[in-house]
Structures are given as structure tokens and as C-alpha cells.
């Protein structure tokens, strides 16, 4: 019996080996009538899916517009997007398949920092140019042909707190006592604690600026019961609550505080999902966050009709996909930037030769609809001068409020 | 046998290794290497899980602990402290081994550990470790660690080759370990633990040691594979390695493939990983989980014993299906690529094996172990159907036949052989008279109980029992229900420990000894409700007792001896059957054969005659007497005083936990106190 | 003050844990099915509450009129399936895991993977609270606690006082013997599956009251809910309630005085200790078994 089962395995192996040897003749790019295929993964299910959806809709919209305008180099563009299930272990396998098996012509990065790091290693191995939308921590992104579509300067861990503190310092009564809540996630914790040897972050910068940190709470990304955190903040009663967290953290904390009959004087959330905060209604009024783009009327007017059209079309698509929050904002803009970096590289280098594309981007930069002309300096991991702003919920909508020259409205202080 | 399997494994490893080493020359795209590497990771993890959970039946939900600790060891040491990667791999194994031993030492020392409690205990471990890593932010800097790419010797080619070869090596070592374990004493011991742990312990299997060994192996393999995983994902965070998906998928793979065999997890891992890859490749993202969940639910529902068992029953059909379907698709070459063809082939093969292996179809085409079972059933059937007289005649007939066919007696002792069937009754009476007269010229004291007591909470099951049993006695232990008979048997065999008092066997103090060591001193027992090892044949059931007896033997040497013991109880014609195919009487005979096979000095029979019809009782009595005559001292608990009166050389009467009477059967049975306590309440005697 | 507040809110949130765990515990204890699909039922209950409340502007608590019967049917159907398949305890875990994966994916296909939260105007409860001095009791947790207490009381009475309850306890002890005494095991287990499904609707509603929903939430419940089941004793409804409160209090107090990251550490260490000292569950006395 055993001999037979071993024979089965043996045959299966030989069959696999033999067939693998001859099964690699499929498609290769270059023919002018064939579409240019762009491959990427997104987290369409699992923990990162809420944001992954936004990137999917933005990408589909971009490709449709591109093809409607004659495609790229006269060829149609096709996007092969695969679900990585928010599982970091799957990402490298999937990129490997896209590049070496499906032989896609171009790639885009996935969503969320750990996934991007996994994908970057594969792209580097194959020498592919990889624009990516959401990893902002420069020291981790060591591959020279990785191009960020969202830049918070090369050192976001000091840029974000400084920008926030600058903003609130402009208020008539600037906050003196702050509470810092930190999600222990690779995508957020560096803003509080710094990264690697660079220890500057919200906590250290607050001290430098003479602010009094009255509560410093680190919570795991899996936190479900927010009442204890809310109670601690209530007892400390700070002038400003800074939540360096993700997703629904900020909304949950606000609600937990509301349940304790407490309303923070002013609150900042690092990378919150925008929708759930708005759904909280009045409780979230005045909430602050970072932003790269908000489709506020003054901003759109400055950018021209194309931007308005893109954001309106996105909203329509998002509604059709039954997304609860359908506004084209930071995440979608980052997605758009990434696509424009990629297509610009192809256009300017005149083909899909990855080396040429990479060099062209370093030399000429790229033009984007929402962030203007971007320049890429390999010395700072291609992080371009930031266009980061601070946004605030005012009258139930997110508006850009800082810095003053790009603001669509005035920053509002705590309500009395 | 072992060599052939080893060669097969080695050949498979070499083919796969060559595939990686020469992937450039073969034109194999690096995607295949990454995919194969991922399969290897899951094979290693599923096998690590299987060595403990599949073999011993203790389901672990804590596989993420090994993956996490292994990956963190490598990521933190090489990424933050500059330790060489190759040094971190054995360290990861070591740390996980220690962790496993720690968990095992706590869990398996638990008095009343049940399977589900173990499962939940292991579920808690990754949660604790994850929280620990989050509290101590200095471990990973609070936000995950990048794993630096090690300096790969040029001989390995690029990083994908190296990663793949490393993962393959780990998987191969894991599978080889699982193979070796299954074909060693440890495998038999773990199977016995899975079937009936306390029986195995009392029979002489050092269950704690084997479970700890399995834990250790599982931990080391899991840790080393976790360390390779860190390199595969490149960036390690708490969420990516301590999550719930790893243990759940490992369990799914193990159960799907079949968890009692070393190949089971391999099959499960290959099928699940490739299927997932294909689904996502076809953009069936929204369907991926639905199909996977459906396949899992369906397969477990229709083939709960796993795919391996079904494939093994029909190896040629499965292989044929794979070759025809995959090959056919490859030749037609109208759809998909090599992976699609293979996955479709594997699915069809599995499906065929399952459908053909299901009971409806399988009954018509005898295969595998069915024939033996059918034979057993056929022999048993008339026994059950016929009237009492017919049964008696038949039993006597069968007895005579076997008595002639089988060379007399067990290997160890006397040679008087079975009494001729025709005058069994006379012989019994003679023997009984003989036994009674023998009391004075008995050997030295074998069992000494001094002031033995056992309380269960407030219930005093036994109270200060003092008892000597001498070599060569056949002691009947009687008493009303709840008088403490079975408790005494459990104390003697070591299943319980006395609350106070001392028990000696052959001069050795066994009061606080582990049951398996008591067995090695010379104690064996049977159970009132027979408890055979259900996954083994009748022959192997008996062979287990020899393998783990006082003079341990290898399985292949134990089997012939086991057959001799089966002949003694006239079960040799059922040696290939499984216990489930035996009737109650046969199972009780099997219990006795198994107990005798461990070559004990004392045999404890706990109501070995309960539930039998008169003819069967007579047959069992003859067997007991034969065992006694072979030189084994016997303590028998029995309600049928008629039988004990004939059989025993001495009766001990327990009542409410104390010794009421002790002496020759006739004397004891006429004792007024005994009649009052016992007979007065037992109307049927 | 902080600790007292943390203890109180923890105990109240424990009601939600108990609601989620009770059904799992009972099916495990009585029917010998480790039903991971229960998490899927809770998830669907939560999404249905969201959907009905949001599109019909119905008070979220009133949505129970719809969700409870729906989940009763779903729970009964699942139990009927398990009965049909005659699975062992561990295989039931695997089959129900398959069902759970399917449920999560279907949920995600219907409602998208994005966060869903009832808007403030249909769900006033989310931010309401009752204050006694400085101590505050959030309304959502009061609802959770109240419903949990109600479920426990009702099931306790049913199990003790009615024929069906006694029959269920008989099944828990010995299915064959119960069958011999004329207990129709099939029918009862389907009924019990339905009731358990109804409790999933309650738990889902309570969860949706105060949380944003994503399909993945189901996995996040695993740790806490199994902790409650074990601590309470498998099959012990009253024990589950007590364990839910205990787990809530431990998490709340540890988060408040030490760190939220430490809560799972203390909680699961406590569980291992509890398993070692009282493997039958901390509160195992009476109940179903």
C-alpha cells in the first residue's frame, strides 16, 4: 500500500516538474496592439479592506478615463488587481505571480505599509518601478525605484506633530495640556514614538515645545473596548487629545467619551476613516486630522475642471459600489497620484522599460492633478516636498484649514 | 518498509531541490519557487501541528505561538541586533521548543485534562505572547521589524532559490520527522494515547513523556519554519504572525488531508495553497473565501477521516484521474496553464476517491480493511441470532476447534492447555477443589495493602483496607455496588492514588508510582467496559502491550508473540479485524489477551464477565483459569458468586469501603455478616 | 474613582460578552457542537440591525422584531444541518469554520468591507448615558447587560422548570438514555439551535448599537468570547454571565490602571490559571450540565 502511495506522489511530482518546465511560454509584452497590463494587489477583504476599496474604485476610474482618452502610447491599459486579503504573507507571492508568471508590464504598490514593504522586495528583485500610495516612512523604503504618491516629508514622525502644533498654536488660546493615544501599529506608532534611531515624535516634540503630556496611552490595534481609555482621558481633561491611530479608532474613542458624558476640548486623529467620524454627527464636530486633498470648493476651483470631474465621477462610482463614504479625499488622491506617476514615467520614457522609467522619474519628476509637479530625490527615498495639510470637520464636512495659504476655511478652536 | 518510505521521501526531496537549484536552466519562473516555498512553509506548519495534534489527538489552537516566536526571534535578532540569520534559525527552534515544553509541562500535569481544555489553553498562548510583545515595546521597537536579507552563498543562486531551498529543507525535515515518529514506538504510543490514553498509561506506555516529546518536536519544527517565514514576508509585525488565521488554516490542512498519517498534512497543504492561488488568479476574489469555506465544510462532512485515507484506498484510481485530467488538459492546451491543470486534476482525484470511498459505493467493492471486518461480522452474526442452546453448542464447538488448531498455552508459563471441551464442568470443579486446598502452599506475598484509604471529596470510597495477596492466588473481590471494588482496582493499577496508606507490589512501594511504571513492575488490568485501541487491529492491540511491557520489543517482533496470546483466548482468527467489529465477549477476551501479553505478575480483572450470556461466561471462565494456570496471580471483581465459588481460591468481601470478610470461598459465603451485607441485598443470587 | 468607573463599565460591557458567549456555550455543552458559525450569526444580526434601522429609520432596538425571527430560522437551519451530518465535536468546529468564512465573505459582498455605522440620528443610544454623580453608565452597555440578564434568567427558568428544559439537560448528560425515555433529540436540538440563533440577533443588535461594523470584526470576538465560555464552564448559562462580567471587569481595570495592551495579557494568563485550578470552569455549578 505504501509503495503505491509513494508512486502516486512520485508521479505527481514528475508530472508537475515536467509541466512546469514547458508551461512558461505565455504572453510577453511589446506588441503594439496588445494592451499594457498593470498589475497590483489591494486589500479587498480583511483588516485593510475599508481603505483598499477606495483605491480600487479610484484605480478603475483612472484606467477608464485613460482608455477613453486613447490609452497609453496608443495602447489600451488593462488593470489586473488581485485581492491580497490584507495578509502580508500573500502579498509577495501575488506580486511574484503578477511579475514572473502573468508578466504584467507595470506594477503599482498595494495598500498599507507592511504590504507595501513585502511588495517592494519583489519589485526590487525584478527591477520594476513601483509607485505606492500609502507608505510614508522613508527609512523603510530603501528601493530607489519605489515612488511615494503621498509624501509627508522624509521624516513624517516629526513633520506631522510640528505641523499640528503650529496649527493649534495659531489659535487664540493654544492648548497647553495634551493627551497622546497611540495605536501600536506599524502605520501609526512612529508618529508618537519616532522610528528606529530617530526618537522624535509627538511625545518628544510636545516636551520640546513645553506642552504638558497629561496622558500617554498605547493601545493594541485589536482594541475593542474603549471605555477605559476614554475614562482616563476624561479624568486627565487635556486641552487637546491626539489619537495617533487608524480606521475607526478615533470615532470609537469619541463615542466612548460621549458615553461618559465627556467631550474633549479638541481632538486630532492621525489616519481615521473619514466616514464613521461624520456619522457621529455633532460629537465629531471640530475634529482635526491630516490630509493631502479635500474636494473643497476653493481647492477644486484652483485645480480646474478636470479635478471636479474626477471627484464627481468617483462619488458616483463609490455610490454604485455601496461604499458608505463616497468622497474623493486623501486616499483616493494618493491613488490618483500613484497612477499618474506610473503613466507619466511610461509616457516620458516612451515605453515600459523599467530602468528607463525609473531614471526618467528621477530626472524629470511627474505631473499630478492633485499634488502638482512632483520631484523625486533618491537621497530622501524619492519623498517629494510635502503638500500635507490639516483638515477639520466643520458643519458636518471635512475642510482644509492649515496651512493658511492652502486652507479652504479658518481653523476653529475648542467650542466653549 | 521504513527504508522504502525513507527512499521515497529522499527522492521527492531531491527532485524538488533540483527543481529549485536549476530553476534558471529549466526556465522555471520565480513565481513557482515562491509558491512552492509557501507550500513548504504550510507543509512544515501543518506537519508540526500534526505530530502533536494529529498523532496524539490533543488539538492545538496555538500554532501561531510557534510561528510568532520563531519569526520574532529571527526578525528581532537579525533585524535589530545584527545577529547572523543562520544563527537565529536554530535559536528560533530552541526557543519554541522551550515554549512547547513549558506549555506541555503545565497542561499535561493537569489531573483532568480533556481535549477541549487543551485546545482552549493553547488558544490562549498566542494571545498572551502577542500582548507581551506589545507591552514590551523594546522588543520590536513598537511597530514591527524588517528582516534583513542574509548573505546568500552564490551556490544557491538568487534569493528566491535560497528561500525556496531553505523552506523545502525545513519541510522535508519536518515530514521526515513525522514519518519517523509514525513508524517508531513513539508513533504507536501516540496512537494509543489518541485512542485511550489512560488505558495506554496503565498498560505501560509512558504517556507523559511521549506527549512532551511530541510537544517538543512540534515546537522546534514550528519555530524553525516560523523563522523561515520571517524571511519570506520580509517585515514582521505582531498582527502578521500571532494572528488566528495561521492556527485555523493549519488545522484545516491537517484535518482535510487526514491527521493520523504523515502524508495527510502534506496533501492538505498542497491542495489548499494551490487552490487559493488559482482562485485569486482568476479574480474570483469575492468567491475565494466562499469556495474555500464550502470545500472545507463539504470535505469534512463527507470524508471526516481525511483525504489521505480515501486516496490510499484507491491509489490507482486517484493517480489515474490526476494523470488523465491534468495530462488531458495539458495536451488539449485550450485553457489555463500548468497550475490550473494540476489543481483541477487534484480536485477530480480527491473527489473520485471520496465518492468511491463513501460507504454506499464502497460496500459493494471490497477494498482495504473491509474484508476482514466482513469476515468478523459474519462470524459474529450467528452467535447473536441463535438461541441460547445453539450458542452453547456452537461455542463449545468453536472452542474445541481452536483448542486443536492452536499450539497450547501462552509463551510464559504452564502447559496444561485447555481442558477438553466435553468435560469442562468436571475439570472446573476439580480445579476449584484443587485451588481451595492449595491455599497453604502458596508463594510469597505479591501485593501488600497497608491501611489504604481513598476519599473522593467527602465520600470515603475506601477506608483503611489492609490486604495481602500471595503469588499463585486467584482472589475474588466481591461486594455490593459502591463498596469500593473498582476503586481498589484503580488504586492497585495506579489510575488513582490513595489518600493515605501504602501499596507494595513484589516488595516495591508503588503507592506514588506512575501507572506505566507500576505496569513495568508487573501489574496488568482489564476494564469492565472493554477499552481497546480502536484505530489498531486486534493483533496490534495485543502487540502494544508487548512493545511497552516489561521487556520492550519492536513492533515487528511483538506481532508474532501477540498472535500466540490471541490464540490463548481463541481470537487468533480475528487478528486482522478492528475492535469495532468484535462483539462484547470477543472484546473482553481481547482485553484479557492484551493484559496477559504484558507478562504481568498480577492480573486485575474488573468484571470481566459482566453482560455475557451463560455460554460466554463458561468460555471466559475457562480462559481465566488457563491464565491462572500459566502462573499469573489474579484478582477478579465479579458479581456472579456462583462463578467465583468455582473459580477463586479466596474471596475478599468489601462493604462500604472496608474489608468485611476474607478467606476460602465456602467459608466466606457462609459468613452471616456477608450474607447480611451482600446477599441480603442481592436478590438474584 | 477611575478604577470604580472602569469596574462598572467593564461589568456592564461584560453583558455583551455574555450575550455573545451564551449561545456558543450552550450548543457546545448540550449538543456537542462547537459552532463557530455562531460568530457569523452575530455578525449578520449586527448588519441586519444596521440595515433595517438605517433604511427604514426604525429604532435599532425595535429591529429585533425582524432580526430575532430571522436569526432563529438561521440558527435552527444550521443546527439541523449539523444534526444531519452527525459530526464529531472537532469536525463540527471545522465545518462551522467553513460556514463562518462563507458568512464573512457574503457579508462583505453585500455591505462592502468598509466600516458601517448607524448614523447618529437613527441611533441616539450610541452616545447617551445615565449619570449618578461622577459615575456614568452608558446606555448601550445598560441595554447589553439588561438583555444578558434577561436571557440568562429566561434560560435558567426554562431549563429548570419546563419539560423541554429538563429534556435538554437529559440530552446533555446522555443522549442515548434520553432517547430511550422518549426525548426527541432531533427536534429539541433544532429548537435549541433556533433559540441560540435568536440570542445571536440580540448580541448583534447590541454590538451594532455602539460599534462600527466591518466583516472582519467576527474574528476579533474569538479571543474574548472563548475566554468567557471557558471561564463560565461549557454549557453553563449562569456561569457564562458571571464570566462575562469578570472578563469585562478584568479588561477594564487592567486597561485603566496599567495599559490597554496589557489587558489581553492579564486576561489570558488568568484563563490559563483558571483552567489549571478549575478545569470545569470557574462558575460551573448548576446550569445545563
UniProtKB/TrEMBL annotation, chain A:
Coiled-coil zones: none
Record-annotated Leucine-binding protein domain positions: 35-378
UniProt KW keywords: Signal
N-terminal signal peptide: 1-20
Pfam families in alphabetical order: Peripla_BP_6
Family annotation (SUPFAM superfamilies): Periplasmic binding protein-like I
UniProt-listed CDD domains: PBP1_ABC_ligand_binding-like
PANTHER family for the chain: LEUCINE-SPECIFIC-BINDING PROTEIN, PERIPLASMIC BINDING PROTEIN OF ABC TRANSPORTER FOR NATURAL AMINO ACIDS
Family: Belongs to the leucine-binding protein family.
Name of the molecule in the record: Branched-chain amino acid ABC transporter substrate-binding protein
Organism for this UniProt entry: Planotetraspora kaengkrachanensis
From TrEMBL, chain B:
Matches recorded under Pfam families: ABC_tran, BCA_ABC_TP_C, BPD_transp_2
GO process terms (BP): D-alanine transmembrane transport; L-alanine transport; L-isoleucine import across plasma membrane; L-valine import across plasma membrane
Membrane protein topology class: Multi-pass membrane protein
GO molecular function per UniProt: ATP binding; ATP hydrolysis activity; L-isoleucine transmembrane transporter activity; L-phenylalanine transmembrane transporter activity; L-valine transmembrane transporter activity
CDD domains assigned: ABC_Mj1267_LivG_branched, TM_PBP1_LivM_like
Primary location class: membrane
Region (Disordered): 406-435
TM region(s), chain numbering: 33-52, 89-110, 117-135, 162-181, 213-235, 286-304, 316-335, 341-361
Subcellular location: Cell membrane
Compositionally biased spans, kind Low complexity: 406-422
Superkingdom of origin: Bacteria
Gene3D superfamilies noted in UniProt: P-loop containing nucleotide triphosphate hydrolases (3.40.50.300)
GO cellular component: plasma membrane
InterPro entries: AAA+_ATPase, ABC_AA/LPS_Transport, ABC_transp_permease, ABC_transporter-like_ATP-bd, BCA_ABC_TP_C, LivM-like, P-loop_NTPase
Domain ABC transporter, residue spans: 447-681
UniProt keyword list: ATP-binding, Cell membrane, Membrane, Nucleotide-binding, Transmembrane, Transmembrane helix, Transport
Protein name (database record): ABC transporter domain-containing protein
Organism in which the protein naturally occurs: Planotetraspora kaengkrachanensis
From TrEMBL, chain C:
Main localization, broad class: membrane
Compartment(s) of residence: Cell membrane
Entry annotated with the keyword Lyase: no
A Pfam family matched in the record: BPD_transp_2
Transmembrane spans: 6-26, 33-50, 62-81, 93-111, 131-159, 188-209, 221-250, 257-277
Keywords: Amino-acid transport, Cell membrane, Membrane, Transmembrane, Transmembrane helix, Transport
Membrane topology: Multi-pass membrane protein
Signal peptide: none
GO molecular function term, any single one: transmembrane transporter activity
Domain of life where this protein originates: Bacteria
A GO cellular component entry from the record: plasma membrane
GO biological process, one term: amino acid transport
PANTHER family (alphabetical): AMINO ACID ABC TRANSPORTER PERMEASE PROTEIN, BRANCHED-CHAIN AMINO ACID TRANSPORT SYSTEM PERMEASE PROTEIN LIVH
Family in the record: Belongs to the binding-protein-dependent transport system permease family. LivHM subfamily.
Protein name: Branched-chain amino acid ABC transporter permease
Originating organism: Planotetraspora kaengkrachanensis
